[in-house]
Specification:
Helix content: 25-40%
Distance between the termini: 43 Å
CATH superfamily of the largest domain: Ribonuclease E inhibitor RraA/RraA-like
CATH topology of the largest domain: Glucose Oxidase, domain 1
Strand content: 15-25%
Radius of gyration: 20 Å
Number of strands: 12
CATH class of the largest domain: Alpha Beta
Order of helices and strands: HHEEHHEHEEHEEEEEEEHH
Structural class: alpha/beta
CATH architecture of the largest domain: 3-Layer(bba) Sandwich
Number of helices: 8
Amino acid sequence: MSENKNPTDDGIFEALRAIPPACLLDVLSPLGYTKLFMKGVKSFSKNEKLVARAVTLRFIPTRVDLKEENFFRPGIGSKRSEAIELCGPGDVLVIDGMGEVEQTVGGDIKFLRLKQRGAEGLVTDAAIRDTAELLSYGMKIFAANNSGSDGDLEMLPWGVNEVISCGGVSVKPGDYIVGDDDGVVVVPQTLVGQAIELSMGHLRMEDAVKKQLEIEDVPVGKYYPWKDATAEIMGD
């Protein structure tokens, strides 16, 4: 299980499940966090919400000597296996696949262990294989593509639980990953409390605006984005 688990995780997970990823982007962008949305990473688990802590894995281009070093470690196996063993309930394996959308980071046999570990699923900016089998495990799968290719011929799992890039976003182990059919957002672990508080306020504002627009039948610009009139209908 991720070493970043803490007693507040259950409350954080519950709060984040109620917040759309787009809302998290809206409230964190003004704080200067403008690169939190993973480009090109889509949901293969339709109508499923992902909320989990990140365990990370970084791939590198293949090389013969490094391949031997990577895959044949007695009792451990590859660095991919090492990363998977760090996952547990509440964790998601986030894989930097170098944006290689035609190359796979693994499939049925390799990721069966994620199911056994009770992980929430996996996220990658590369491709996955054996898609139907992975989805049958009940895990949440977010990837740039699916393919029948053998990605191990082109790239190697290498860096375990370090800061990586996935979909153009920096991901640190322990960061919170929130995904749905619109895509995946990374919430820095150090900002998650503030992100939740700001998002709850933002959602309350949006709800008030929608109700008022129904009452008045006026253009949305009267109340949104935030104006003095918005504060009035919210009672602020």
